[in-house]
Amino acid sequence: MAKRDGLKNYKCLDLKDAKNDYRLREVYRDWAKKYDFDNDNVLGTVSQPKSVNLLSTRLKDKTAKIIDVGCGTGLVGEKLKAQDFIYFDGIDISEDMLSIAKYRGYRNLFLGSLNKQLPLLDNKYDAAMCVGVFTHGHVSSDRFNELCRIVKPGGYICFTINEGVFEKYEFKKMIEEFQSDKTWEVISLYKDDYMTLENVKGYYCLAVVQ
């Protein structure tokens, strides 16, 4: 078994792990207790506040039902709460991460993986956040469909993509196909700071489900 160093093992993930939920759960089990510290002090991750700010440019209803897919320890939920959103749920593959997220304002927390069908009803939410999930060795671009399934037509999907997988995992191609097929309308797509202490940038996307 790999040494129980969550951050080190996270950095070793590759595409073959994207369909291996056991491997992902193992990594986040080992990382959960140090995740918030590493997020701020080792990686310098800024995707959570930037994503919530992006969603807030369009979603003005503070009572909107939001799902945070891949919520981890709840850092996105913390930012949603700070912006006075009052109804947001979370779902994550890791029970260890969810045990920390439960203190950050979520109405409901679910165990589930975006690599499979989520245990959520069709058209349930007004918006979905998916921050830090589309990265090395996690989830491939063919899972955009699942985000669209759980969001109402006219609802928003706000997500990030690590620059290192944007073209490698065909996210760029899939975003364009969804736009062409009128599955969604992209409102905003741009590259910005993502993990500042690692000098890694990411893509930020906001789309409306059609």
Give structural notes:
By secondary structure, the protein is an alpha/beta fold. The chain has helices at 6-11, 21-43, 47-56, 75-82, 95-101, 144-150, 171-180; strands at 66-69, 88-92, 109-111, 125-134, 151-162, 184-195, 200-209. It has a single domain (6-209), classed as Vaccinia Virus protein VP39 (Rossmann fold). The chain contains 7 helices and 7 strands. It has a 7-stranded mixed β-sheet, sandwiched between helices. A hairpin with a 4-residue loop joins strand 6 (184-195) and strand 7. Helix 3 (47-56) crosses helix 4 (75-82). The protein is globular and about 40 Å long.
Brief digest:
The chain has 210 residues and is of the alpha/beta class.
CATH architecture, please? 3-Layer(aba) Sandwich
What series of H and E elements makes up the topology? HHHEHEHEEHEHEE
Number of helices: 7
SS elements, strand count: 7
Strand percentage: 25-35%
| Biggest β-sheet description | 7 strands, mixed
Count of the separate structural domains = 1
Helix proportion? 25-40%
User: Under CATH, the topology is which?
Assistant: Rossmann fold
User: Span from first to last CA?
Assistant: 45 Å
- CATH C-level name: Alpha Beta
Mean model confidence by pLDDT: 94
CATH homologous superfamily grouping: Vaccinia Virus protein VP39
List low-confidence stretches: none
The radius of gyration computed from the alpha-carbon positions, rounded to a whole number of angstroms, is 16 Å
Shape type: globular
